[in-house]
Hints:
Elements: H1 5-9, H2 11-47, H3 49-52, H4 75-81, H5 84-108, H6 113-124, E1 130-135, H7 142-149, E2 154-158, E3 167-173, E4 179-184, H8 197-205, E5 208-214, H9 219-230, E6 235-240, H10 247-263, E7 270-274, E8 280-286, E9 293-299, H11 305-317, H12 320-368, H13 381-394, H14 401-417, H15 419-431, H16 443-467, H17 472-481, H18 490-499, H19 501-506
Amino acid sequence: xxxxxxxxxxxxxxxxxxxxxxxxxxxxxxxxxxxxxxxxxxxxxxxxxxxxxxxxxxxxxxxxxxxxxxxxxxxxxxxxxxxxxxxxxxxxxxxxxxxxxxxxxxxxxxxxxxxxxxxxxxxxxxxxxxxxxxxxxxxxxxxxxxxxxxxxxxxxxxxxxxxxxxxxxxxxxxxxxxxxxxxxxxxxxxxxxxxxxxxxxxxxxxxxxxxxxxxxxxxxxxxxxxxxxxxxxxxxxxxxxxxxxxxxxxxxxxxxxxxxxxxxxxxxxxxxxxxxxxxxxxxxxxxxxxxxxxxxxxxxxxxxxxxxxxxxxxxxxxxxxxxxxxxxxxxxxxxxxxxxxxxxxxxxxxxxxxxxxxxxxxxxxxxxxxxxxxxxxxxxxxxxxxxxxxxxxxxxxxxxxxxxxxxxxxxxxxxxxxxxxxxxxxxxxxxxxxxxxxxxxxxxxxxxxxxxxxxxxxxxxxxxxxxxxxxxxxxxxxxxxxxxxxxxxxxxxxxxxxxxxxxxxxxx
Length: 508
């Protein structure tokens, strides 16, 4: 019988081979991008000569809306900082980290599909096309600005990440075959005005980012702009509707923005460009004869030379290999974030199942043993030790047996001291479920054990998650502080009884 590759090599080995193949494909594509991007930039220069050299526009003066070289920072150092060998090493390191986290998730039993899909998609997008993502709030003129930049562009609508929100993908194909892909991302207002979800992920997948705003930036917009710069790729701030401002206001705002850009320590270029995206503007027309006012709309002529200037300088300041390396590192970070989310989700699910399992087992053990009200609370220390071991393994930590044993003793003593409170909580649980109607008077003791194990399981899981192997002090404090809390004890036990009612009813 023929064996499949998975049977022969194992899934972990195939994942490692797959990651190495992606790295080889990416390095090969960097060389191809260098050739195609050079032709693409040449066509861009011929099409918009005024954006490349203000002298070609017929004037010996630099246009008032052109951005000075000081609006771009870091470009003088890029050639020295990001050499070919360093760039390659950085990408290899980023992909190695993804591979390590994939193996970690597989070892723990967590998912890896989203991260693997992200890396496969990165390889597919290595098509020699520079991708520029346009972000901003609704009605700031992103779409109008793209239309002004490439009025003959073809539009494709793409819904990514399984969401219904759409991304406009505009492809501008040069006569020599070079392409620039402009991505019109959903307005940030749709996601609470924050850089989250689809917008954040697509920004990390792009080579260059254009953040469109109108007027002075709000505090949240400054936060978004800083987030975009932290992605480690070129960012251009397009100040739309600049004609609304007086010359003094415009000059002051641009000076502030350029000072902010110059203060950044990132190696990637940052640009600032005032623009008018076009469209129409309502105006009030007064009839000189009658004095009546009439509302009309006046078409606006796009003013995008400064944005073209900045975009071209950004792309010329960055070797195509650098653009691809920066994008690859950002996507690798995105893949790592998805692996972390998968691990968190898996751990949360496993934690809940672990707590339910040990709580119900403690109740079953209590029911099987003879009970005596005069003896008070009899804590199942061996089972509690097993729970703590399970929690430590779930969070990837080794168990200090001596500390764990001391913790179990202290938990048992604390539970005995608060026996009356435990019986009150037990009565609350019994009122909320019919699963234990045939357990008799011993049901109170059984439920009490279940409540203690619910709280101990939650305290152990959160403690190991936050403090690692040194979490025993935190676990005991959490157990002590939340003892008697209905949300931490009663509700989870009721959920466990409801979820596993059939097993509880048949337990002997």
